[in-house]
Design brief:
Elements (H helix, E strand, L loop, with lengths): L11 H23 L16 H13 L3 H25 L4 H21 L6 H8 L2 H4 L4 H31 L6 H10 L3 H11 L3 H8 L3 H10 L1 H16 L9 H29 L3 H11 L1 H18 L5 H11 L1 H16 L12 H7 L1 H18 L3 H13 L1
Helix pairs in contact: 1-3, 1-15, 1-16, 1-17, 1-18, 2-13, 2-18, 3-12, 3-15, 4-5, 4-20, 5-12, 7-8, 7-12, 7-14, 8-14, 13-15, 16-19, 17-19
Length: about 400
């Protein structure tokens, strides 16, 4: 999500990496549109328990869930830093006014997006985290890496302070504890909660807006709780830009080595957590901490591996890379368009398939917006040079600044 720049100034691999990120996000977003909330994390909550559904959950948990969201946040941080550095070179001063205007407009776009389409919108969280960039932009790459690690540790500590209670109650077998009942509603198989969420998922657009608008202030709690993790990924992306990796300055061998080390950190941890969930039978008290807290370091490691691999192998000018780069240059437009397409498939004002498909079927339907992005992005870019949402963001931010 960056403002346009002349083609000669763009880094092909970075644009392609951004395209990979926005495509990868679809793999989990489709579940948020297709199934009740707990099923996003827990395969036994809803959406079938056949072998195909199980393998889709395992593949998603290990390779997709929060990896591409983290990657998207990393690229958001790098993109903001690129704009700040570019404006600073032109104006001779750090353009914080323009940066804050961009964050305010982005938050507004995310708010509309969350109200109409995707309640799990990430733009609001990125915009809030982006307000802290003036504190980070002057740091060195090493300093940014240290900040990223510190914020990740803070996320782990705060997350377990909240979600650790149900985990303790579960192992003490105190089944009537309020914390266990709460966890069951959020991450488990509570029938009343599933029924309520199915009804909400099948409501009309006007009903959805009427229900969600009063809840906007309450959403700030969840957004603020996500700040340490999102800001950690953003700081990591800024550090990778300053360190030269995202500028395309690292040699292929170095990129491969980083990818290998990061994968060796991330994959065993994720497979171990998956094995724990399977062995315990996916109790809600474990699903929540694993999905939202304990997997975070391994998610970030694997996102780093993806970034290194992309910078190593997506730098050659060919049809596939150019198409991915076009998707990446329209990342904001594609992110929003994905929600429109998924709503057309699952919402009541579309085909109305919410709650009517299994996990693997939902995952397969996620290929529809992916195919659309790959098809329309090069055509739009060749004619307009900039995505419609990017144009709106840029013009509104300029007017506000």
């Amino acid at each position: 999500m960056t403002a346009p720049s002349p083609a000669s100034e763009r880094i092909l691999a970075l644009d392609a990496l951004r395209g990979v990120a926005v495509i990868g996000i679809v793999g989990m977003n489709v579940l948020a549109f297709a199934l009740p909330g707990p099923a996003y994390y827990n395969p036994l909550s809803f959406g079938g328990t056949g072998p195909a559904d199980y393998w889709v959950w395992l593949g998603s948990f290990v390779f997709i869930e929060d990896k591409f969201r983290t990657l998207f946040a990393m690229l958001f941080g790098a993109g903001c830093l690129i704009l700040i550095e570019r404006s600073g070179q032109q104006d001779g001063a750090m353009p914080w006014r323009a940066h804050y205007a961009r964050m305010i407009v982005l938050f507004g776009i995310g708010l509309v997006h969350a109200t109409l389409f995707a309640s799990n919108d990430v733009l609001r969280a990125y915009a809030l985290a982006g307000l802290a960039l003036p504190l980070l932009a002057g740091l060195s790459a090493q300093g940014l890496f240290s900040v990223a690690l510190g914020l990740l540790c803070l996320h782990l500590a705060l997350g377990m302070a909240v979600l650790g209670t149900p985990l303790v109650m579960f192992h003490k077998e105190q089944w009537g504890a309020d914390s266990l009942l709460w966890a069951e509603r959020q991450f488990g198989r509570d029938p009343a909660m599933i029924t309520m969420l199915l009804e909400q998922g099948r409501e009309g657009l006007a009903e959805r807006v009427t229900r969600r608008v009063p809840g906007i202030p309450g959403q700030m709690t969840a957004l603020i709780a996500a700040l340490p993790l999102n800001l950690s990924a953003i700081a990591l992306g800024m550090g990778l830009w300053k360190g030269g990796m995202l500028k395309g300055e690292w040699r292929t061998f170095r990129l491969q080595r980083v990818a290998g080390i990061a994968a060796l950190v991330g994959l065993p941890g994720l497979l171990g957590l998956a094995a724990w969930l399977v062995a315990e039978g996916f109790p809600a008290a474990i699903v929540g901490p694993v999905a939202l807290v304990l997997s975070a370091p391994f998610d970030m490691a694997l996102a780093l591996a993806y970034a290194a691999l992309a910078m190593a192998f997506l730098s050659k000018d060919n049809g596939l890379v150019n198409r991915l780069a076009a998707v990446g240059r329209l990342s904001l437009s594609n992110y929003l368009a994905t929600s429109v397409i998924l709503s057309a498939i699952f919402a009541s004002w579309g085909l109305g398939l919410f709650g009517e498909v299994t996990r693997w079927q939902a995952f397969a339907l996620g290929l529809v917006p992916v195919a659309a992005m790959l098809a329309w992005s090069p055509l739009w870019l060749s004619r307009a040079g900039q995505g419609p949402a990017e144009r709106l963001w840029r013009r509104a931010a300029r007017a506000l600044a």
